[in-house]
Specification:
The protein is an alpha+beta fold. Helix content is 29%, strand content 28%. It has 2 domains: 255 residues, Aminopeptidase (3-Layer(aba) Sandwich); 213 residues, 2-Layer Sandwich (Alpha-Beta Plaits), CATH 3.30.70.
């Protein structure tokens, strides 16, 4: 197997087993059954709660039965995206892992190391008979990526631990003690259609593709392009058009890497459409030549002309709303230098089942700033007459400067790694704040190995970093 020459074979073998099981958010039954079976095979007690979270209980090593228990936590689901042209079916196909020795990635899809590596680390520790540790509780939650469902629905009565190590971070050497909260803004309306005279129009499809995309929390600060925004940039400059199709973005917490817009224009406007597309192509190629160099814009004339299209005013209004929707960092934190305080990700735009819709995801370390940003996004659509609703609000995780777990973990990191850990907060959302609110007295930290380009087809994990992080987690549970 690809992991035969790697140091931590047990962890990587478990990761391979996990990767063979489809586990897109909302489709966690297979991985849940696998975890329950794994616990039984290893002589461990396991339970489920009503929302589908899995709890595995690992007895203390001899002599440590009276020590306070520790919870190792991660989530079961993954963000599923695939490369253009890939036939991969996330409902049944295993992730095909590629290892070059230094990194582990997937062939033409996202890898799912976010957060499969947490499961692999926790199970590797649980079956390590040579490790001295207190009682361990392994908690694996559902649907973290689509609304933190498992954390919100957690049955806290099934946990005795009041110390939680979340393994869902993506930078080695950092101990996270806080994270942003978030809220989603869904806007749209049922389309109004007009009849089309096929002899008087040209049917085009504009495709924006090749973008890096990425995690809307962990990579929003990198200045990468948004495919929906680029498509809207072209459409904004057209004087007149009627939408026939729109498909941009894949997930609410993913920066869109592709967008397609199909539309009708009068025959006399064809040259204008092609000229504007060429102009925007040149502009974005220059603007993103360093930060997102793979962007392509293609414009195709389509042979078929539908008998109906979205009315002109509605078409113009919706694309203008997308054009005006803020995307990217809104403000930086004054308390945590270099950390984004508030951001918005224009995540999804679609014309589907007779409805135009747009989804934005707003995050902030400050609840009032989160809400204000969301209201600003909503106002754009409301001003154009579209209906807006707010969904999936979750709180920020506020750092606790007096946390005993943070202080001890930082001290142990220095002892183990011979260097100081960075103790800070993160703009991405983590489950710790919600779990802390559900389980009274819970003290949490979040750590993890180096992951790159998560929530994209370029997602990969650094092998040595993952193995070092596993070593540190073993050290933590031994010394805490």
């Amino acid at each position: 197997m690809w992991y035969d020459e790697l140091k931590e074979k047990t962890m990587w073998r478990i990761f391979q087993d996990i990767s063979a099981i489809p586990r897109e958010s909302g489709n966690e039954e297979g991985i849940r059954n696998h975890l329950m079976s794994w616990a039984k095979e290893n002589g461990l007690e396991a339970k489920k709660d009503k929302v589908g979270n899995v709890f595995i209980y690992v007895p203390a090593s001899p002599g440590r039965e009276d020590d306070a228990p520790i919870c190792l936590q991660g989530h079961m689901d993954m963000v599923c995206v695939k490369r253009e042209g890939s036939s991969h079916d996330f409902t049944k196909d295993p992730i095909e892992i590629v290892c070059d020795g230094g990194t582990v990635r997937a062939k033409d899809t996202s890898l799912g190391a976010d957060n499969g590596i947490a499961i692999a680390m926790a199970l590797a520790i649980a079956c390590n008979k040579d490790l001295s540790h207190p009682p361990l509780e392994l908690l694996f939650t559902v649907s973290e990526e689509t609304g933190l469902t498992g954390a919100f629905g957690l049955d806290g009565r099934k946990l005795a631990s009041r110390r939680l190590i979340n393994l869902d971070s993506e930078e080695e050497g950092i101990i996270y003690t806080g994270c942003a909260g978030g809220i989603e803004i869904d806007a749209g309306a049922k389309v109004r259609l007009k009849d089309v005279d096929p002899s008087d129009v040209v049917h085009y499809r504009l495709t924006v593709s090749g973008l890096l995309g990425g995690h809307s929390g962990g990579e929003i600060h990198k200045g990468r392009a948004n495919a929906i925004k680029i498509a809207a940039r072209v459409m904004h400059r057209l004087p007149d058009f009627n939408l026939t199709g729109l498909d941009g973005g894949t997930r609410r917490n993913v920066i869109p890497s592709a967008c397609r817009v199909s539309f009708l224009v009068g025959k006399d406007a064809a040259a204008t459409v092609e000229s504007i597309t060429d102009q925007v192509r040149q502009e974005v190629s220059n603007e993103y030549r360093t930060k997102d160099p793979g962007i392509t814009l293609t414009l195709e004339r389509l042979e078929d002309v539908p008998c109906q299209a979205v009315k002109t005013r509605m078409s113009l209004s919706f694309m203008e709303a997308l054009y005006l929707t803020p995307h990217g960092p809104v403000s930086m934190s004054a308390d945590f230098p270099g950390i984004v305080e508030t951001s918005n990700n224009l995540a999804i735009a679609s014309l589907h089942d007779g409805r135009l819709s747009a989804v934005s995801s707003t995050r902030s370390l400050v609840e009032s700033a989160r809400n204000e940003c969301a209201y600003t996004v909503a106002a754009v659509y409301e001003d154009f007459g579209f209906k807006v609703k707010y969904e999936g609000a979750y709180p920020s995780w506020e750092p606790d400067p007096s946390s005993p777990l943070v202080k001890k973990a930082a001290s142990l990191y220095k002892a183990y790694c011979r260097k100081k850990a960075v103790v800070t907060t993160i703009h991405a959302g983590l489950e710790c704040g919600i779990i802390n609110s559900v389980v009274e007295g819970m003290d949490s930290i979040s750590i993890g190995p180096n992951l790159f380009d998560v929530h994209s087809v370029n997602e990969h994990i650094e092998v040595e970093s993952a193995e070092r992080t596993l070593g540190f987690v073993r050290y933590l549970v031994e010394k805490l």
